[in-house]
Specification:
- Helices cover 30% and strands 19% of the residues.
- The chain is of the alpha/beta class.
- It folds into 4 domains: 186 residues, 3-Layer(aba) Sandwich (Rossmann fold), CATH 3.40.50; 176 residues, 3-Layer(aba) Sandwich (Rossmann fold), CATH 3.40.50.2000; 68 residues, no CATH class; 31 residues, no CATH class.
- The strands form 5 sheets. Strands 1, 2, 3, 4, 5, 6, 7, 8 and 9 form a 9-stranded mixed β-sheet that branches. Strands 12-11-10-13-14-15 form a 6-stranded parallel β-sheet, sandwiched between helices. It has a two-stranded parallel ribbon with strand order 16-17.
- Helix 13 links the parallel strand 16 and strand 17.
Length: 500
């Protein structure tokens, strides 16, 4: 039913841990923070990049797609044969993961970009657990309801928490003892190639100048009304939008004769597009989804030698707002005026503006970010190897309902490290169930029915389970009568012909 076991690479980074990265962003999506970091980690140790599953109903079984797009990195993509309950999917994914890892005896570093993958992987023993919190995912459109609870659980088990910007660091530093800010960095040598003349790509060659360009994901974080306003205010400008459209209906994109949507482009090609722009745009909406972002494209645009016009994103204004090459604008009209000033800067740009931008970028590089992260991880790994017995704040004996709830509350709400032990090899007590080899849900200890009249209890448990409404009615035939079982007042009254 599952793909035959594929061995984890044993020769790469011999003697070093295996980095197991769980990501909600696919490897072949936009090349951004996860890809920048993992590519560099892979120079020293093997990286497994676990993606979200693909529903593949045309296949007859679940399987794991395995490929290696670059040396040192293995992409693992689960394929599911059918839609199923959350619990059933998690069990399938755990089995696929365990099957793949089975023959590796390397120590493992667990690395998370999303708390949603904690349930399928929290059982994997690790020498270090890292939560690289690059965005406040709970603020994005269509965020799962259970995400905040799972993030609290991830905070409880993580050894290190990295944030994608300083605003996000300030929001998270009080909930974990080891939170470190690592704002978006830049591969300067890659984007500085845009400062020299490059052949104009075929699909933008015919656009009129001046050109104002954006590359990146086009989703709820982009102020589409602002893009339309700029195009309407200056129909002589070409607005070039490069990147995939995600989570929004393409039909709502503003359509103007001077707005061009070019779709996704390879990371290697981005400097060539930027080299033939006059101004770089960052038309972000000011909403919950952008409250904590630290856009990678800010230093990339500057490295490309472009003036930048942005809406007032906190981390952009804080770290780049004083640069002559960066304009911050809060309204549509102000944004158009800022673009006009940026175009004037382009026409008369001297070495001073470039030198100022280069000075701001001088301490930024993905290589230095990875080196700092490796040092912190090394301290955790060394500390654990020096400690024979791990520290726990609480020991919970019994993983049934009471023990599991107590442990989860202590970990999620109080931030405590909790050790749960049970003589059985599973949680849930007598309510435990599992999928057998045929995919059938089996109640190992018999059927279980949950009763409560507390909305608070239902809301809490709904973070971890789906519900099947069920009414349990049992009647016993006694002397020609059908009487309720278990025995209750109605049973007594009917059996003896009384009313009590």
């Amino acid at each position: 039913m599952f793909q035959p076991h594929v061995s984890v690479p044993q020769d790469h980074g011999a003697g070093k841990p295996l980095l197991l990265c769980f990501s909600h962003l696919r490897w072949d999506f936009v090349f951004q923070r996860p890809q920048q970091l993992m590519t560099r980690f892979a120079q020293d140790l093997p990286v497994l990049f676990w993606e979200e599953p693909i529903l593949d109903t045309g296949k007859g079984a679940e399987w794991l797609e395995v490929r290696s797009p670059t040396p040192g990195i293995t992409i693992l993509t689960p394929h599911l044969a059918r839609a199923s309950t959350t619990e059933a999917v998690e069990q399938i994914l755990r089995r696929l993961l365990d099957e793949y890892l089975r023959s590796s005896d390397r120590p493992i570093i667990r690395w998370y970009y999303t708390p949603m993958m904690l349930p399928l992987s929290r059982h994997v023993k690790s020498v270090c657990t890292v939560y690289d919190c690059m965005d406040e995912l709970a603020n994005f459109d269509f965020a799962p309801a259970e995400l905040p609870a799972l993030e609290r659980a991830l905070f409880a088990c993580a050894d290190l928490v990295f944030t994608g910007g300083y605003s996000l660091y300030e929001a998270k530093r009080s909930v974990h003892p080891a939170v470190y800010p690592f704002p978006s960095s830049v591969d300067r040598s890659h984007f500085e190639t845009a400062r020299v003349d490059q052949e104009d790509p075929d699909d933008q060659r015919h656009f009129a100048r001046p050109r104002l360009g954006y590359y990146g994901v086009i989703d709820e974080r982009i102020d589409l009304a602002l893009v339309a306003a700029v195009a309407d205010a200056r129909p002589d400008w070409s607005i070039v939008m490069v990147g995939p459209v995600v989570k929004i209906d393409p039909a709502i994109l503003p359509q103007r004769s001077n707005i061009y949507y070019l779709g996704s482009k390879a990371y290697a090609d981005l400097p060539r597009y930027a080299a033939n722009w006059d101004v770089a745009l960052m038309p972000f909406a000011i909403n919950a989804s952008t409250r904590f972002i630290s856009p990678t494209k800010t230093p990339e645009y500057l490295a490309a030698g472009l003036p930048v016009v942005s809406t007032p994103i906190i981390d952009v204004a804080r770290h780049y707002g004083e640069l002559d090459a960066v304009q911050i604008a809060s309204s549509n009209d102000a944004f158009v005026e800022a673009c006009e000033r940026a175009l004037c800067t382009t026409e008369g740009a001297g070495r001073a503006e470039l030198d100022q931008a280069d000075a701001a970028l001088s301490q930024l590089s993905w290589d230095s970010v990875v080196a700092s992260m490796e040092a912190l991880i090394g301290e955790i790994v060394q500390g654990k190897s020096d400690t024979l017995r791990p520290h726990y704040d609480y020991l919970v004996v019994g993983a049934g309902f009471a023990g599991a709830v107590m442990a989860e509350r202590l970990a999620a709400d109080a931030g405590k490290r909790v050790l749960v032990i049970d003589r059985r090899p599973h949680i849930g007590g007598n309510a435990y169930d599992h999928l057998n080899e045929d995919g059938i849900l089996v109640h190992r200890y018999g059927p279980h029915i949950f009763h409560t009249n507390s909305t608070e209890i239902v809301d809490y448990l709904s973070h971890f389970t789906d519900w099947r409404p069920y009414e349990h009615r049992v009647l016993a035939s006694v002397g020609g009568q059908l009487l309720p079982i278990p025995i209750n007042r109605t049973t007594i009254n009917r059996l003896y012909g009384v009313r009590v």
